[in-house]
């Protein structure tokens, strides 16, 4: 067995042990796992500009019981291949039976965000650092609220073959008012390259809040066609 294959084997075993420990570490908010079904797109329109598109459908259970709809778009400016700045907008419709908020009030949110991504490679590992600021304008029906939040995500991708890869990240959410801790998301997944510009990831997310945890199955489709006119 080559050194690279041996390293990959140990990493896979470590991820399996990590997920097993996380699942059993704390009680979840529900008896059943929830699910997030997601689409992400990056469409290059010029050498420096691309358009981000995103849709997420989140459920309390894997096959139903609606939790949240999230639609997000943004304009990316590619400073260089390893540095990207983004200005974007998101619309979020939430069933607040989920315990991020107290009570059972549904909410609609308009969100503006600014984002900066840095990428680097160490050996076979691909690292991505994502820094994001959010201005959240939330309508609870009886009242509205404006909140500000900062997020940092460290993501690591490891190619296994030309087709398969492992992906993992941890992301912390910090409020810029009131209690500083908002939530933390820890994610591991197996990915497959479908075509040159599309891939699929199936993974597990531990969504941790200050008082409760939630287990989520994640299924994500990535489609990144280049829309630049061919010369």
TrEMBL record:
Database matches in InterPro entries: DUF2490
Protein name: DUF2490 domain-containing protein
Organism: Muriicola jejuensis
Signal sequence segment: 1-25
Pfam families associated with the record: DUF2490
Keywords, in A-Z order: Signal
